[in-house]
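Lecture notes, continued. The same structure-token format from the folding unit now serves as the input rather than the output. Read the line below as a description of shape only.
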């Protein structure tokens, strides 16, 4: 029986399928739970702090304000499952927060936030390429000196080597495509701000690059359709395996795919039972 296709494609899903089809299946199709990581959760915290910073008037965007916004963001995320799931003790949380503060301070080495003219923060955008629904979240959309759109993406890690920079910009080109489809204009610049080492990587998107991305998305979707039809998602062992949450299910890591199927079946049974219970309540109420 063919597997159900994912509802949408996002930059992370595109990267996931390209890097390892089996990990893509576990995440996007089977929707298996993934353990939170310190790096990802710290990224969420810093992104939220910077979002709050740019909600302020330009003159109020100081280092002190940004650190206060980080404290506010931490309290807002205090009950978030990803933060709770890290199970940080007092010392570990102190180190976690200290590193987040370092990243926020380093942001000010990259640009002067008082000069930024944001028109959108954490924008959730969705468009279509043929019958493919694509979606993404733009960290910051702003206007440059000439009124052109600039797409900015924060990265809390270190910048990649020169040979990998273009690949990282591919994800932001995805956002440029969304802007063109939804706003009718191609951004004048797309940029990645690496807080880990205070480096900016930027490029000017072209119509050729957008056409190339559309072609890539069509080909990728066809590959996903074939994989779902044949239930054929193969692992691709490599350096990224050390970051993967699915070792217990991956045959390349000594795991058992049957365990993944059991998790999916158990979840489906729980949903069916919940729906049945709701139907009984409705019937009783109607009687």
């Amino acid at each position: 029986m063919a597997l159900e296709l994912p509802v949408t494609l996002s930059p992370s899903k595109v990267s996931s399928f390209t890097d390892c089809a089996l990990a893509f299946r576990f995440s996007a199709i089977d929707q298996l739970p993934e353990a939170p990581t310190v790096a990802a959760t710290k990224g969420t915290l810093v992104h939220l702090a910077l979002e709050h910073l740019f909600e302020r008037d330009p003159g109020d965007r100081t280092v002190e304000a940004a650190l206060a916004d980080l404290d506010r963001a931490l309290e807002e995320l205090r009950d978030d499952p990803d933060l709770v799931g890290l199970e940080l003790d007092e010392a570990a949380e102190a180190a976690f927060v200290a590193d987040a503060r370092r990243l926020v301070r380093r942001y000010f080495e990259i640009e002067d936030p008082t000069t930024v003219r944001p028109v959108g923060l954490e924008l959730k955008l969705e468009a279509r390429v043929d019958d493919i629904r694509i979606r993404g979240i733009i960290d910051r959309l702003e206007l440059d000196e000439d009124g052109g759109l600039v797409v900015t993406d924060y990265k809390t890690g270190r910048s990649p080597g020169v040979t990998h920079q273009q690949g990282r910009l591919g994800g932001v080109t995805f956002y440029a495509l969304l802007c063109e489809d939804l706003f009718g204009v191609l951004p004048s610049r797309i940029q990645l701000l690496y807080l880990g080492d205070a480096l900016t990587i930027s490029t000017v998107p072209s119509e050729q690059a957008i056409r190339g991305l559309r072609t890539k998305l069509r080909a990728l979707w066809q590959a996903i359709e074939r994989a779902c039809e044949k239930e054929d998602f193969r692992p691709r062992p490599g350096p990224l395996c050390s970051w993967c949450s699915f070792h217990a299910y991956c045959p390349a890591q000594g795991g058992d795919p049957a365990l993944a199927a059991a998790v999916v079946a158990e979840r489906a049974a729980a949903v069916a039972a919940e729906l049945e219970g709701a139907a009984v309540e409705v019937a009783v109420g109607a009687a």
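Point for the exam: The first helix runs from residue 11 to 19.
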